[in-house]
Amino acid sequence: MTINRVQLSETDILEKEFKKSMRGYNEEDVDEFLDIIIKDYEAFNQEIERLKQENERFRKSAEQPISRKQATAPNQVNYDVLKRLSNLEKAVFGQKGTDNIKEGE
What would the DSSP string read from start to end of the chain? Predict the structure, then answer.
């Protein structure tokens, strides 16, 4: 459902007057129910506005060019991975095993 298809506003609901009849609904019950609807309407509108703002922030961040800090981040990750791999090799093969590999190169 798009916002253009919404037929009632909070004011429309609040100011709605129902015709009274002998066997009609209890006016207090109707008013209480309409109050609940108005609160829900307000909550939905607030959520829609919050989501619009969040969507706009994401759109702006997606349009921004990658900064130097972001561009160098993958290199840092690779360095960390290589360091961990080296430590793992030392633990598995021992110090001598890694020394022999370096000497053989």
Answer: --GGG----HHHHHT--PPP-TT---HHHHHHHHHHHHHHHHHHHHHHHHHHHHHHHHHHHHHSPPPHHHHHHHHHHHHHHHHHHHHHHHHHHHHHHHHHHHHH-
Tell me, what's the pLDDT at 105?
46
Per-residue pLDDT reduced to its tens digit, 37-91: 988 998 998 999 999 999 999 998 888 776 655 555 555 567 777 888 888 888 8
* pTM of the entire predicted model: 0.46
Q: Is residue 23 within 8 Å of 47, Cβ to Cβ?
A: no
* Pair of tokens at residue 78: 């690779």
Can you say whether residue 94 is alpha, beta or left, with left for phi > 0 and alpha for psi between -120 and 50 degrees? left
